[in-house]
Design brief:
single chain, Rossmann fold, Alpha-Beta Plaits, four-stranded antiparallel β-sheet, 13 strands, about 35% helix, elongated, binds adenosine-5'-triphosphate, ATP binding, ATP-binding cassette domain-containing protein, ATP hydrolysis activity, ABC_transporter-like_CS
C-alpha cells in the first residue's frame, strides 16, 4: 500500500466480445479525495472497465492501473482496492458477519476489523442474520463492508444505488462522500446522471466504450447555471416585458416563476424596481446535473436512450 497513492489510471482500453466492441480506446484518470461518477447508458462499458480494473476480465489492448500497478501485480489486493460489483453475490444461507469473516480469514484480516466495518455501514445489529433475509439496502451495506475490510485507498462501486429506496440512496451518498473526505479514491458507476447529484465531485461520462466528458461537477454546474436567475413574481407578464426589452432571455417556468438569462441578479432587481414591477423571490438559478450535462453535450439522445442498433448488438450476447 506504501506505493499506492490511490490514483487509478485507465489507458487506451480496448475490449471486444465477439462482434461487440465494449471498450473503444477508453482513457481517464481517477484521483484520490473525491467521488468520481462513472456514468453512461446501459451497455456503455462501465462494468467491463471495472472488471478489467479488478483483473476479472482481460483487455484486448491498453491497461488499467491501481496506484501504478495492474491488479495482478498488487501484493495485497484487498488492502489496495475494495470493490462492490454485485450486491447479490452473497450466499443466502450465510449470516452477514460470517460472509465477512470468511473474506477476512482468507486475507489474514483480524476479526475486530469485521465488527468495525459492520459498525461503519450500520449493519452491526443485523450481522448475525442470514443474508437471504436481507433487504437490497442491507445487501448493499454488506457489499460495502466487504469492500472496506482491507481499509483500501481505492474503492470501486458498480451501480450501488440501483433499486434502493430514497433513505438507502441518501445513506450511500453520504457514505461515499465521507470515504472521499478520508482521502480515498471513490469511483461509482451509474446509468443515471441524476443518481450522482449531490455525491459526485467529478464525472467521467462514457458512451459506446469511449469517454464523452471528463469534467469537475462544480465547473459543469457553474457553466450551466451562469447568468441565470430564478424569479418569483405576481406580475409575470409585466416582468417578462421589462426584462425582454432590456435584452434578457426570459422563460416562464411556472404560474408565477421565471428564469432569466443574461443580466445578473442585481441587474434584474434594478430593472424590475425601476419599472415598478413587484417580485417576491430572486435567486441564482442552480442547474441540475442532468440539465448541465445535456447542455454540455447538446445531445440528449446519446445519454438518455441506447440507439436502436445497440439493441441489435445486445441480441448477439
Ligand atoms: N461477457 C460478455 N459477453 C458478451 N458481451 C458482453 C459481455 N460483457 C459485456 N458485454 C457487452 O459489452 C458491452 C458493455 O457492457 P457493460 O456491461 O460493460 O456495460 P455497462 O455500461 O456496465 O452497462 P450496464 O449499466 O447495463 O451494466 C455491452 O454491449 C454488453 O452487451
Amino acid at each position: 500500500m506504501d506505493s499506492n497513492d490511490g490514483t487509478v489510471q485507465v489507458r487506451g482500453l480496448h475490449k471486444r466480445f465477439g462482434p461487440v466492441t465494449a471498450l473503444d480506446g477508453l482513457s481517464f484518470t481517477v484521483t484520490p479525495g473525491q467521488v468520481t461518477g462513472f456514468v453512461g447508458p446501459n451497455g456503455a462499458g462501465k462494468s467491463t472497465t471495472m472488471r478489467i480494473m479488478l483483473g476479472l476480465d482481460g483487455a484486448d489492448d491498453g491497461e488499467a492501473l491501481i496506484g501504478g500497478r495492474r491488479y495482478h501485480a498488487l501484493r495485497t489486493p484487498l488492502h489496495e482496492v475494495g470493490a462492490m460489483l454485485d450486491a447479490a453475490a452473497v450466499h443466502p444461507s450465510r449470516r452477514g458477519r460470517d460472509h465477512l469473516l470468511w473474506l477476512a480469514h482468507s486475507h489474514r484480516i483480524p476479526v475486530r476489523r469485521v465488527d468495525e466495518v459492520l459498525e461503519l455501514v450500520g449493519l452491526a445489529s443485523a450481522a448475525r442474520r442470514r443474508a437471504g433475509g436481507y433487504s437490497l439496502g442491507m445487501r448493499q451495506r454488506l457489499g460495502i463492508a466487504g469492500a472496506l475490510l482491507g481499509d483500501p485507498p481505492v474503492l470501486l462501486f458498480d451501480e450501488p444505488v440501483n433499486g434502493l429506496d430514497p433513505e438507502g440512496i441518501r445513506w450511500i451518498r453520504g457514505f461515499l462522500r465521507s470515504l472521499a473526505r478520508e482521502g480515498r479514491t471513490v469511483l461509482v458507476s451509474s446509468h443515471l446522471m441524476s443518481e450522482l447529484e449531490d455525491s459526485a465531485d467529478h464525472l467521467v461520462v462514457i458512451g459506446r466504450g469511449r469517454v464523452i466528458a471528463d469534467t469537475s461537477v462544480r465547473e459543469l454546474l457553474a457553466a450551466a447555471s451562469a447568468d441565470r436567475v430564478a424569479l418569483r413574481t405576481s406580475a409575470r407578464t409585466e416582468a417578462m416585458t421589462v426584462l425582454a426589452t432590456a435584452g434578457a432571455t426570459v422563460a416562464a417556468t411556472g404560474r408565477d416563476t421565471l428564469t432569466v438569462s443574461g443580466p445578473d441578479a442585481e441587474k434584474v432587481v434594478q430593472l424590475l424596481s425601476g419599472a415598478g414591477v413587484p417580485f417576491s423571490e430572486i435567486s441564482a438559478h442552480r442547474a441540475s446535473l442532468e440539465e448541465a450535462y445535456m447542455e454540455l453535450t447538446g445531445d440528449a439522445l446519446e445519454f438518455a436512450a441506447a440507439p436502436l442498433d445497440e439493441a441489435d448488438e445486445e441480441g448477439v450476447r
